[in-house]
Write a structure and sequence with these properties.
Chain lengths: ~260, ~260
């Protein structure tokens, strides 16, 4: 299958423009699964919970989800992308999975970073995996990368590909952890990070790109620039994620000894 | 406190010589905690279970443990080192911790690599932490590095320093995973790997050194060569491992969400 990663540069609050910009980037490529950044249509730097709520959308009814479904239908592809989700009184930092037949799944970011703790409600759904036929997909968002339990929970449920929308400001950190997550779990990981700078407070945020797809052996199949709007599509063989053997005697998941862990 | 790592080149089966060589290397340095390689006195490449049994020793009664205790007493230090442990009919790939007052703890390698599965009994004791006063010490051995549960189990029990005796043949793999283990858990890690080549079968094993001490921010404080017998001592501030804050809102262990993991 072909995995595409979109490294866009959203303008805060310009939802329709940001969606259109991504679709423009994607249009000249073909992929079976696209991964877009965290909060790719809204922007990231919310000043307070009210701003997050103003830009939050219901799932799957909101315009971002509907636009993604329409694109997925028109191109016969699957898309993972991040958006602020409104559900009753709560706003989640959410990632959704849609396909040609519509909405499939949501993941609400479990490990919120820094001021996200002010602006979002922590995820309340367990890590879960969706079988889209060509592969089993798990979702995690940005800072989840630092917690090995995130990718492990997905791998243990059979994920072949971990889609990882991100808005990373530190360079070459999540890239290293995600390389290890791919390696230790024997899965593909696809991190879509944004670029550009947001200056809505005195504390400007510059996002550091380096979006990447990593193979189950921990090697990056592609890594994008730190500061340019770009897309990449890589061909992967999903079966590489189903062979967890390290040696003829060792298995990345089968060798686990949960009875002796203290977690 | 000062952590010393010993990168020795044992000769298979020459237990007394290998012990003496390490002590010679250590003698010109001073450390509070020394970490020696996996199976540092016996060598690694056992041809069959009978060979492992022949070189295995009881703990703490055997000559290797007793020699380490004597050294620890004479220098007022603590030592972590690997040896094949004989207990009734079982032989474990074991790491022990000794101090000036004698034997303190053992860890029996939980994740056995490749033909170790033929020659050793898998560890049957949970990951555990020992408070030696100047720090809380956890032990793991070599291939345990690939399983994030190993270091996590130790960190969650309060380990400040993870002592990691190793006999690594792949270069720059465990070095990368241990950097992430230190970072994700906010602990110091001290990996003592051996160098040299063993040619007891057609499949020669060349060990790849690069012994290292990593700080809780994931940065290597020292990394030794890939092929030379060496030691290094680094000064650390244990309190760096007790501050798990990432931001004012984030904590490496406190942010975990075990209720939403599927492990």
């Amino acid at each position: 299958m072909r995995i595409g990663i979109v490294q866009s540069s959203p303008v805060f609050g310009e939802v329709k423009k940001n969606i259109a910009d991504c679709f423009d980037l994607m249009a000249s490529h073909s992929a079976d699964l696209w991964v877009l950044p965290e909060l790719f249509a809204s922007g990231y730097q919310f000043l307070n919970p009210a701003e997050a709520r103003d830009l939050a959308e219901t799932v799957p009814g909101g315009i971002t989800t509907q636009a993604l479904i329409e694109y997925a239908y028109s191109k016969s592809c699957f898309i993972v992308a991040g958006l602020p989700e409104l559900d009753d009184d709560s706003v989640y930092n959410c990632s959704i999975l849609v396909g040609p037949d519509g909405y499939l799944a949501r993941y609400r970011k479990i490990h919120l970073f820094y001021e996200e703790k002010t602006n979002f409600t922590p995820g309340d759904l367990p890590f879960a995996v969706v079988d889209i036929g060509i592969a089993k997909i798990g979702m995690m968002v940005c800072f989840d990368h630092l917690f090995p339990e995130s990718a492990r929970s997905l791998a243990l449920q059979g994920a072949d590909v971990i889609a990882h929308p991100a808005n990373l400001v530190l360079p070459d950190l999540a890239q290293r952890t995600m390389s290890i997550r791919a390696l230790e779990n024997g899965v593909f990981t696809a991190t879509a990070n944004r670029v550009g700078t947001e200056t809505r407070t005195d504390e400007a945020l510059t996002y550091t790109g380096q979006s990447q797809v990593v193979a189950p052996d921990g090697q990056a199949l592609v890594r994008l620039s730190q500061d340019r709007v770009e897309v990449a599509v890589v061909e992967i063989d999903v079966s590489d994620a189903r062979d967890k053997a390290i040696t003829k005697h060792n298995d990345k998941l089968g060798d686990r000894r949960p009875d002796l862990y203290r977690l």
